[in-house]
């Protein structure tokens, strides 16, 4: 049980970092327009194809997560929840590998 709580805290920290990035880079500090964790960043118009490149740069530079070309999919990058899960999976794979 203790491990699950720690994992949840780590996920929340990652999600907070993702939210901060979205607010700073796409909403120019206006967190009142922040989409829900599962809302599509593309469908909402918040992120376009250039924005996806910005997200990949954020993942690789700030979050220290390598993103392969075949991983630039909506299932990994199109919502705050998807980004958080992707970062967590990549970090776990790196830690185990």
From TrEMBL:
InterPro entries named among the record's database cross-references: ACP-like_sf
Q: What is this protein called?
A: Acyl carrier protein
Organism annotation: Nocardioides flavus
**Taxonomic lineage:** Bacteria, Bacillati, Actinomycetota, Actinomycetes, Propionibacteriales
